[in-house]
Design brief:
2 domains; elongated; 5-stranded mixed beta sheet; alpha+beta; Outer membrane lipoprotein wza fold like; 5 strands; 143 residues
Length: 143
């Protein structure tokens, strides 16, 4: 009994890790290539976007969404304004990512209007699309 008592007072435990939780995030939306990005060290939103090939010209930087599961496993979204990160005024918007986060970069309002014009005017009304698109583009940059 004394041998058992000594072992119980100073127990030794060995843990063998067989698999790790996925150490990656998914970057989607107006990036050059939607993909999973491996988390290596500290990975921020801007780092993950860069690893996904960078931003498209059509990206809306003022409303980048990070979706993360809370403690109950429910997804919760956080809106970030990456304009302030890019211009150097607020780096707190470039948050650290956690495994299984989703970074979504939405289209800018102009990109959505361009898509509407292309899909519903250029393709549906032959011959009208080009002059209208020219007018739209000219007025957009002259104001």
């Amino acid at each position: 009994m004394k041998k058992v008592a000594v072992e119980l007072n100073k127990p030794e435990i060995a843990v063998n890790v067989r698999t790790y939780a996925e150490q990656r995030v998914f970057v989607d939306g107006e990036v050059m290539g939607s993909r999973f990005v491996e988390l290596k060290g500290i990975t921020t939103v801007m780092t993950a976007i860069a690893q996904a090939g960078g931003l498209r010209e059509t990206a809306r930087l003022s409303n980048v969404i990070v979706i993360r599961k809370d403690f109950d496993g429910k997804p919760a979204g956080t809106s970030l304004d990456l304009r302030s990160v890019i211009d150097g005024t607020d780096f707190s918007q470039d948050i650290r990512l956690m495994p299984l986060d989703i970074v979504y970069v939405p289209k800018s309002n102009i990109a959505r209007v361009d898509k509407f014009v292309d899909e519903y005017i250029n393709k549906l009304i032959p011959g009208l699309g080009s002059p209208l698109m020219y007018y739209y583009s000219a007025t957009q940059y002259n104001h």
